[in-house]
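ARCHIVE CARD
Drawer: 12
Card no.: 0347
Subject: one protein chain, sequence and derived structure
Cross-reference: see card 0346
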Amino acid sequence: MKILVNGIQSNLRFSSAHVIPGHESCGFIHGHSYFVDVEIEGERAGDFEFVVDFKDVKGYTKAVCNELDHRLLIPVYNNLIDFKDFDKENDSISDLKENNSIHFKIDGKGYSIPCVDCVLLPLPYTSAEELSKYFAENLAEKLSKTYDNLKYVAVCVNEGIGQGAEYRKDL
């Protein structure tokens, strides 16, 4: 059986700025008002024969939305972003987070942003595709600690009505 959670109606939303280095139009810092849809398939189980409790799905998803909301999303593992005093091969993202400001260059343009205004993501891009994978893996990990009856978790991150990307994580 499948359960569906509509991001608009369930208030699973966040507004963030991002950049896709090297892209013709998305290579500039810009923003979206995102919403997140969730689909989960599994067997009914437990005292109430739920596939999963909607409260858990919405709570875990909303926590990630809140983390990303009103921040600049920075894909730390993008090859076109050069960070000052950070070696992607040897340093951890937590090292970068300890700084007061994040200093980086994209195509020769220099940026210095307060760390509290950013979310440093372990991703190559902050595209809808990569964000949907990030959400799905995060949600699958959290739900798997409580539920052993799930077949998959699919998350669609929408950059606006009518355009989004969905990633399915099989369990």
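Annotation on reverse: The CA atoms of residues 83 and 104 lie 4 Å apart. Strands lie at 2-5, 13-18, 30-42, 72-75, 81-83, 101-106, 109-114, 118-121, 150-160, 163-170.
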